[in-house]
Amino acid sequence: MSDPSQLLSYDRDHLWHPYSSVTEPAPTRLVESASGIRLTLRDTDGTRREVIDGMSSWWCAIHGYAVPELDAAAQQQLGRMSHVMFGGLTHEPAITLARKLIERAPAFDGQARLKHVFLADSGSVSVEVALKMAWQAHLTGGRTRRKMFTIRGGYHGDTLAPMSVCDPVGGMHRLFTGVLPEQVFAPLPPAGLDGDDATYDEWESATRRLYEEHAPDIAAVVLEPVLQGAGGMRIYPPRAVRFLAALARDHGALVIFDEIATGFGRLGTMWAADQVEVVPDILCVGKALTGGYLTLAAVLCTADVARAVSGGEAGALMHGPTFMGNPLACAIASASMDLVTPTRIGRARQIEAELRGALEPARALASVRDVRAIGAVGVIQLHSPVDTEAVTRVALEQGVWLRPFRDLVYAMPPLVSDADAIETIGGAMVSAVEQVHG
Fold first, then answer.
1. Is 320 annotated as a binding residue?
2. Beta bridge mates, 243
3. Is 287 a catalytic residue?
4. Site annotated as Participates in the substrate recognition with KAPA and in a stacking interaction with the adenine ring of SAM: where (predicted)?
5. pLDDT tens-digit series, residues 374-416
């Protein structure tokens, strides 16, 4: 079955794509290969066309595709072993990756606080593990804290516990209300890195009152620092993150940072935590960890958290994925981390400026509510829901793959994208919005 029309027909009839219907499936495009920052698509008539991937494959392929260093790491590791169980066994790729993560974890007092690494399957699973860590840590000594505290507008994954800390009203998981554990949600902080002072002060007062009402039952504050991802691509003030972290610690709760989307240079710093100068008690990383080659995530925690979890009734963290510490994924992740150099992180800051310039014309469009950028993230927000298929089609005609959602047309290009590619991406975004929404 090599004919493109046959492949797409079988796909339409049998494959279930993310957030899609099997009875009314959305159109899909056939990818034949990928190299650099481009995808080669094959149309039903057999013709091929190259397009720039403005999405970094859902934000993970930060180095692009067919990366020589990552290909070599994969090939070398395949020559040794692709997988071995992590229960009772260990191996060099996992140990090396853990060392690199610990050495590069957020640290502002000159000392590394995040000293233990749990290797998980995916970003959502890493949040699941982080929440378990927090619950188990408080069980030590007979304490029980059942709730998580977070802000509206967040997204932390599609498995059960992470769904409970996603926005319960405007998020993708509102259908599960009544099934999920009920957490405590503060209002959205003011938008933007600075935020209006008066509005911010009102938000802080309201959030403090809400927290103190539930403080004895709060196990942890869970946040995507600085940028909320799939919940709305919303930028909010670093001081709000610092305030929430201090609130948690003043009341004996833990601080969990979900840096699955923001880590590894995406925002122009190694971590979003670097912009708020807060070291969390638990840090979740994923997506770009392997440069988009294989699924892998990690949960880093402090020695205090690790001791509390290990000193509880169970005597262990009660989680153990079959593919935990997969050697192939760890070897590639280690090589990927070596590519996240200061120069590559600095490129994200340059991309921010280039995206701002390329997207500026969108401000004049009647359909546009806001235009914003931070690091290698550019967003055009509309007044109404985006026509996903129409915008996607117009962008493809201009040589760019985008995947809009909700009221957002956005890009998260690979960090290796040059200025011409960013101009092409930004131009396609503006043109698609103008042609489809006006």
1. yes
2. none
3. yes
4. 19
5. 999 999 999 999 999 999 999 999 999 999 999 999 999 999 9
